[in-house]
Amino acid sequence: MNATSTFDAGTxxxxxxxxxxxxxxxxEAQVGVVVLIVILGLWSTFGNVLTILAIAMYKEMQKKSNxxxxxxxxxxxxxxxIASPLWLYRRTFGYQNWLWGDFLCKLFWFADESTSYCTAxxxxxxxxxRYIGIRWPHAHARISKRKxxxxxxxxxxxxxxxxxxxxxxxYQAEDRSTTGGDKARWPSCSIITSDEGVYRxxxxxxxxxxxxxxxxxxVLLTMSVLITKELIGNKAFKSQCRQKxxxxxxxxxxxxSASFLFGYIPNLVYVMxxxxxxxVDYRLDYWVHMGCYFALRxxxxxxxxxxxxxxxxxxxxxxxxxxxxxxxxxSTAEVDFDNSRKGKRKGAEKDSTAWESGTSQGRQSNSADFxxxxxxxxxxx
Length: 381
Known about the structure:
mainly alpha, 2 strands, 2 domains, Rhopdopsin 7-helix transmembrane proteins, disordered N terminus
């Protein structure tokens, strides 16, 4: 009986040992990933906060086109401040066993997917907005700020619902350190593997990504072709000033679109690939996803640069924000007023010192004159 129990226990330990897998990255590689992601996250946070303040703080920057830029910056900021730290733990020290609770696991997927879908729909909307401005400028001018805000709010509502609330129900934290099978290559906080969880996630992801990623990309490409055709075809009927303005607007859209495609297409392809293939080495899966995620974080770092490079007004507004922060959150007028007061105070102190010095010298001079007269009088006497 004891021998049989010992044999069964030894067999179970052997089976567990068979499934226990080391982390796909060495400790040094994990530290390197942490350092790189932290640097990208800090830069993304700084750039997007600067963009938000540059638009929100100054009334002249609160134009209809800039509302799309502001909303895109908010989306990237949420992704960088919430999704990025949770992803970092998920892919490094929490890879085999997520210890931060199921709520934070679902929060990661909520923030990551909803902001991805929100960004895609925003860029497609921005492309349509630019095309309307070039094709029908008068109708474009009549669209009110209120309608633009309502559209942006609607985009947020839909993407948070279908890309966040619904999407995060397909994921949970599971201990994968002793899990066998093909799905063991995914981190602890991943798709629910029981009750056909992978199949259900794949069906929904196909629907949601087609609606909120692939369709916006198709709209973006279509609008790009139409905008190019419009610029080439009606060039002779536009003034030089308008052509220059349109070129800047299209350059901004082109850069934002290129950054978006660079960051989001690899991640979309990875999810499609990893949920539809079997027998993939978990180390290969790990580093493929790592490269895709670096592209995503790099894209979020590029966007604030694009906003400022392609717009002179954005550059000036960003400089004003930086000066405002440098001056201790005081406006330039307040600083100039304080400096003028300091200048007047120093001038008054200087005049007072000069007056006192002159008075003292006068008293000394009068005293010297009095002594001289006294001396002369005594001599005459």
